[in-house]
Every structure is written in structure tokens, then in C-alpha cells.
Design a protein that fits this description.
homodimer; 312 residues; Nucleotidyltransferase, domain 5; 2 domains; five-stranded mixed beta sheet; 33% helix; globular
Chain lengths: 312, 312
């Protein structure tokens, strides 16, 4: 099956023509300066036409357009319920209408973390696994769950995509979502600087001079033996591992797939979480596996075909 | 619809003949001394015959037998996967066969917390609500979730029934399940004595002399102004409220139903959790409600008809 696939991110928009598990043509659009999705639709359409030409295909041969969007999305109706600060005009756009007019094909839209899970399940780390959750460690912590081969969405499309907003410390830090001590508030890109700034002993740490307090910096300083960095790293590993167990207890999967940019910074993350899950997760039936995502930024794009094939 | 309903607990077994939302006849069997379920089947059958006579009905008029069991149960096949210390012989019993031979009707079995949710949803606090989670505060913390009108069970029947085993404190107390800092390890009947015993200032608290460290004792001492009891009560309220938000973020319900014996001890529990959820839960679509269960110990028994009617 041929499909047009769009992965909308905060700083870039990935566009691709995909055939089943293969990306035939790919291009990335800069979107950092743009707050409106409507203003980007013409560039997306133009890019897609070039990619179709590159793939020697026509839009009419495609099953449809699949969009991964960073917000709360109703895949059943193609509506965007809620955006997270960026692309606030998206809730008013008729994207299925735009797709019909522009390409003459139907459109489906889904939350970006769910798209990444669909991609990894269809073409990546979780091929053939019908019960799988995904954690995406980045600026925030993305979540998604598939149960018996179906994405879990819930009544208002919020189920499982708030996996990073399960509390791991009920007297912890305020989260951007309004809750207290969410995994994301304790160990994600946006919350990390606050965690480090309050750390005891920071005045004698190399982190005090760091131009950027990101996970790359923390893991590098920890590898050099910086005490604060070692302690912060340990705390983050524990938060992610506790969050993985929470997802296992919540959704009963056979596998946890860990993805996102942070996974590149720390080779220690995967073995730590694997060992923690083996020791602490309760699974009467056996042992849930923990694996790294393998598709990187292409995961969401490769979710296109399974999304378009899904029967609602 | 008429049904035979059995609710298997650690110290008592509730038996009933139910017609739709009504209990026609009820009796409770003592089971404290018995470690084997097989040894109780004859008493259950005998009790059911008396209850059928009392209800002026015959077994043949019943749609089936529904059993709520405290363990991990595969409702699709009627198998018990895992028991929690008691009734370990149950995994080897052919309960559907027993029901056919004894009553000539089919049997279904489900986890007891899921049965309580089914009952509250069919005949109690959550009537007409298709998206609802339940927390049962007792010796442990039971959990169950219904999404779009269907119980969530997951691949190995563990989904949602481990709701009390979502961590709320990743550096917290060891849980009986093997995990760290589960809601149940921080604020449930079995873990409460350990929480109190380590509390700073206990030596000058009335709790030091308490014959039983249960929630009734804590709430009573807190009402008298005992400082340790006030602090422990506050901590437990925060744990339960954080657990309620975790369930909302995990399963996207319209309502949280709170049940279990502990709810009788503390009139403060419900308003505290309601207020916390209103302030801290992230629901783009509106406000999840928090309500008390209304069926008490009868909830599980009233889950019989919806369980027997469910299509797998």
C-alpha cells in the first residue's frame, strides 16, 4: 500500500511517500518560526508533490494521507481536540477536506506518540507484538499503548498518550500539565534544568558552568565522575524505570519500547530499565521485554499504513 | 435475567440469587479457616440451593453462575491464572465443569475488583457511564477500568486490576508485589502499620498504644488532634488522590468510583480526592467526576448479570 505521511513536530515537519514498511521519498520542512498550521499546508502540499514525483507515483495511487500531530487528536473523526501551545489554529482546520481537495484522497490524523508506536509495531522494534507500550523520552515523555493489536485511545482520545503524566512522586515537582510529580516533571528535557538547579552541591559541580542543561550534558559530566551529574543521572534512571513499571501494570503489555532523542545520550538507560523491570514489574504470565526503538524519527512516518488500514 | 452470583473474599464468600439489578436472596459463608476453594464448593452449592428455594426459582431459570475471585482471572476462558496466597488450588479447578454438573448452567469468572466495577456501573454509582475507573481501598487497593462500555482486561488479564500498583513514590516503600512505592505500599490496610511505625514523633502519639493500626484508628486519632495521626492521614489522602489522577491519565474516564471498607472510616476522603482531581487531573474535554461507591459489599454480586451478558 502507498501512502502520504506527515509527521508534525515543533521545529520540523517530516513529509514522506511510504510503501508499506519502506520510505520511498522523504523531506523535512523547517517549522520553528511558524505558529499556524494553516500557513504550512501549502508547503506541505508542494513538498508532497515533489516527493510523489521522486517516487514516480501519483497521489491517486495513494490510500490516503496520514498525519502525526503533537496534541490530543480524535482519530475516528479526524478532529484535533487540543494542541500544546503550538499550532493552535489546528483545532479549526478541516484537514480531511484539505486532503480531498489537494490530493483527492482521504486523510487520517493521530497523536504523534501513537503514530511512533504504530510505526515501531508495524516496521520496527515491536513487529509481530500485539501488546506493547512505548515511552518517548525527549522534551517531554510521550506515551502510547497497543492492546490486543489495537491502539488504546479511550473515551476522549487521552488514554495512554498521557503515559509521561503518571505521577512517580506524589510530593514532587509541579508538572506543566497541572499535576504533581509526573514522570515528565521529574525527568524530561523541559524539567531537567529545574531539577539540576536545586541539587545540593551544585556550587562545586561542572554543571554550574554548562551552557545547556540537557541530558547529553548530564550523561557526559556523569561519565567524567561529576558527583551531581551522577546523582541526577541515577534519579532520572529511577524515574524512567518506575514509569516503565507503571505502564506495564497499567496496560499489561509483552514489551516496552523506549524511544526519543534522550535514548541517544545514555547507553546506560536501556539496561537499567530492563534490569529494574525484571526485578520490580508484576507479571504473573512471564517477563515483559524492554527494547530500544529502532526507527528513530522515521517511526511516526511508518505508522501511516497501519493507521490508514485500521477499521474503526 | 436471573443469575447465581458468588463473591469470593478472603474471610467470607457472598452467595446470591440476583435478578438484574436486584438481590433476591443472599447469604454469606465463613471462609477464614479454609485455604482450598475445592473444599468450599459443596457448601457454595448447598447455599445456592437454599437461596434458589428462598427466591422461588430453579437453577434452570438462571442464565449462569458468575464468580468474583481475588486473583488474576481469564474471563474469556474461565481460567484462574494466579491467586494471591489464598485458594491456590483454584488454578487447577474446572469451575465451568463444576457449574454445569451442579446447576446445569454455564459459568463465568472475573477478578473481584472488576466485578465490583461492573456492579457499580450496572446498578450503582456509575449507572449509564461507559468510561469509569474504580479504586477499592481496603487491605490492598483494588483497581478496574471500563472504556467505551467494555472492561479493560489486556493481553494477560492484568490490565487495570493492578491500579493500586502504580507507583506514587519511586523511592518509597517495598510493595508486596515486588515493586517500589506502589499506592498500595504507601497507603493501604496491610502497609499502614509499617508507615506509622516509622513516623517521627510516634513516641508521643496516642497511636503508640493503639491495639490495631487500621484506618479507623488513624482517622479517629486525627479527629482528636493527634499530630502523628493528622500527618499520616494527610499523607494517605495525598497518595489516594495521586493514584486517582494516575488512573484518570491512564484510562481517560468520565468518572472515578471510590469504594472499599476504608471509605467508611474517613468522611474526608471523597472531598479531598474530588478537590485534588479538579485541581490536578489533565482532561482537555472537561472534568472527571469522583464519586463514592453505593453498593458496598453487594457491588461484586450485582456484576453477575453484565458479566454473563458480555460478548467476548
Amino acid at each position: 500500500m502507498l501512502a502520504l505521511s506527515v509527521d508534525i513536530g515543533g521545529t520540523h515537519i517530516g513529509c514522506a511517500v511510504v510503501r508499506d514498511r519502506e520510505i520511498l521519498a522523504f523531506s523535512s520542512l523547517e517549522s520553528e518560526g511558524s505558529e499556524s498550521l494553516a500557513s504550512l499546508l501549502a508547503s506541505i502540499a508542494e513538498t508532497m508533490r515533489c516527493l510523489l514525483a521522486e517516487a514516480q507515483s501519483g497521489a491517486a495511487e495513494c490510500q490516503g494521507v496520514a498525519i502525526g500531530f503533537p496534541g490530543i487528536v480524535d482519530a475516528r473523526t479526524g478532529r484535533i481536540f487540543s494542541t500544546l501551545k503550538k499550532y493552535e489554529d489546528a483545532v479549526h482546520l478541516d484537514l480531511p477536506g484539505w486532503s480531498r481537495e489537494t490530493f483527492g484522497v482521504p486523510l487520517r490524523i493521530e497523536n504523534d506518540a501513537r503514530m511512533a508506536l504504530l510505526g515501531e509495531q508495524y516496521a520496527g522494534a515491536a513487529q509481530g507484538v500485539h501488546d506493547v507500550v512505548m515511552m518517548t523520552l525527549g522534551t517531554g515523555i510521550g506515551g502510547a499503548a497497543m492492546i490486543l493489536g489495537k491502539l488504546l485511545r479511550g473515551a476522549h482520545s487521552q488514554a495512554a498518550c498521557l503515559g509521561g503524566h503518571l505521577p512517580v512522586d506524589f510530593r514532587g515537582r509541579p508538572c506543566s500539565c497541572g499535576n504533581i510529580g509526573c514522570a515528565e516533571a521529574e525527568a524530561a528535557g523541559w524539567s531537567l534544568p529545574g531539577v539540576v538547579r536545586g541539587w545540593p552541591g551544585l556550587e562545586s559541580s561542572s554543571l554550574l558552568q554548562a551552557p545547556r542543561l540537557d541530558f547529553r550534558t548530564i550523561f557526559a559530566a556523569a561519565a567524567q565522575g561529576d558527583r551531581v551529574a551522577v546523582e541526577v543521572r541515577q534519579r532520572c534512571l529511577e524515574v524512567w524505570a518506575a514509569n516503565a513499571v507503571a505502564l506495564i501494570h497499567a496496560y499489561d503489555p509483552e514489551m516496552v519500547v523506549m524511544g526519543g532523542g534522550v535514548m541517544q545520550s545514555g547507553a546506560a538507560i536501556l539496561p537499567y530499565v530492563q534490569e529494574y523491570v525484571a526485578r520490580h514489574a508484576w507479571a504473573a504470565w512471564g517477563k515483559p521485554q524492554v527494547r530500544s526503538a529502532v526507527l528513530g524519527e522515521k517511526a511516526g512516518l511508518l505508522g501511516a499504513v497501519p493507521l490508514l488500514q485500521e477499521e474503526f
